[in-house]
């Protein structure tokens, strides 16, 4: 089982020819309201890998929560672990995308702030299971869950998005840390690491303190990783023509959910990175986040479109 401890948001998506600068108003023709939140998104991506997925979090007592949870259950995600807030609305994100698929996002946490680590029972923190977390929840609740999962031998994956300082004792209990290129540099600065801009050296620097597997996602350039033994891995993305890219909003969550599903299914780090890289690329071909996520069959069919995976050491 994959236990996703994460956020549930209503996404308001605006599509314009260009993104606004500070103080600028940009007009667009229409907008859409969709299901989102890194937790909900990654849970859906993971379940499309064919695994058993439980989402644990908190949503408001409102219409958006009702609709979004119904959709997740219809897709096969178990939502009995989602608590209901009596005083906060369901989280909300405003997503702006331009004609090239670039995006800007602002998130209001809402009921997500009331999610508690103890909503995840000890009985499911088993060695065969995986806990997947992000940073749209209260950090201390993630740290508590990582500690409990580590004690019971349950694999832990943290998508450190958005990036914040992560305590050393937490890093030592993580199995996998996933960050994008910007987040990697931010966390390196927070940890007062002096590293070059080389992403392989950055992944190595973040891997060493906790002796964990650190993966840095690079968008259209794929991803790199340093495993806990110091081995380096570079996996490309599928090469997409500029005209093929519709919306990059869901690519990161597709990557993380697919990676967690692959790890829980028994694939090794390299195979999981390859499958996640395909899923992230395919998510750019459609509008929205959850509606763009690929199924296992789609991922397997497109693995041959990846370039060469490179392994080595610095």
Describe the 3D structure.
The chain is an alpha/beta fold. It has a single domain, classed as Ribokinase (UDP-N-acetylmuramoyl-L-alanine:D-glutamate ligase, 3-Layer(aba) Sandwich). Helix content is 30%, strand content 24%. The strands form two sheets. Strands 5-4-1-8-9-10-11-12-13-14 form a ten-stranded mixed β-sheet, sandwiched between helices. Helix 5 packs across helix 6, helix 7 runs antiparallel to helix 8 and helix 8 crosses helix 9. The longest helix has 14 residues. The radius of gyration is 18 Å and the shape is globular.
Question: Any idea what the radius of gyration is?
Answer: 18 Å
What is the level 1 CATH name?
A: Alpha Beta
Shape: globular
What's the CATH H-level homologous superfamily? Ribokinase
Which architecture does the CATH hierarchy give at level 2?
3-Layer(aba) Sandwich
SSE string, helices as H and strands as E:
EEEHEHEEEEHEHEHHEEEHHHE
Percentage of residues assigned to helices: 25-40%
- Number of DSSP strand runs: 14
Q: Approximately what portion of the residues adopt beta-strand conformation?
A: 15-25%
Count of domain modules: 1
Number of helices: 9
């Amino acid at each position: 089982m994959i236990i996703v401890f994460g956020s549930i948001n209503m996404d308001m998506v605006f599509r314009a020819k260009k993104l606004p600068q500070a103080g600028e108003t940009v007009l667009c023709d229409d907008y859409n309201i969709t299901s989102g939140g890194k937790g909900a998104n990654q849970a859906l991506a993971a379940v499309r890998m064919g695994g058993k997925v439980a989402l644990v979090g908190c949503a408001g007592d409102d219409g958006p929560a009702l609709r979004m949870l119904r959709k997740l259950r219809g897709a096969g995600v178990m939502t009995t672990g989602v608590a209901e807030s009596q005083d906060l609305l369901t989280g909300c994100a405003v997503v702006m995308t331009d004609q090239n698929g670039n995006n800007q996002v602002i998130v209001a946490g809402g009921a997500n702030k009331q999610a508690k680590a103890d909503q995840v029972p000890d009985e499911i923190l088993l060695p065969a299971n995986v806990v997947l977390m992000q940073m749209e929840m209260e950090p201390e609740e993630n740290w508590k869950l990582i500690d409990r999962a580590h004690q019971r031998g349950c694999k832990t994956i943290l998508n450190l998005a958005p990036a914040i300082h992560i305590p050393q004792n937490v890093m030592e209990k993580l199995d996998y840390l996933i960050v994008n290129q910007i987040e990697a540099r931010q966390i390196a600065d927070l940890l007062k690491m002096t590293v070059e801009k080389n992403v392989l050296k950055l992944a190595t620097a973040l891997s060493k303190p906790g002796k964990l597997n650190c993966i840095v996602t690079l968008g259209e350039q794929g991803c790199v990783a340093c495993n806990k033994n110091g081995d380096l891995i570079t996996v490309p993305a599928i090469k997409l023509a500029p005209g093929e890219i519709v919306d990059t909003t869901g690519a990161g969550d597709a990557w993380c959910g697919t990676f967690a599903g692959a790890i829980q299914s028994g694939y090794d780090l390299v195979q999981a990175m390859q499958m996640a890289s395909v899923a992230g690329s395919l998510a750019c071909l459609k509008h929205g986040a959850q509606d763009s996520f690929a199924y296992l069959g789609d991922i397997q069919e497109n693995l041959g479109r990846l370039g060469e995976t490179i392994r080595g050491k610095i």
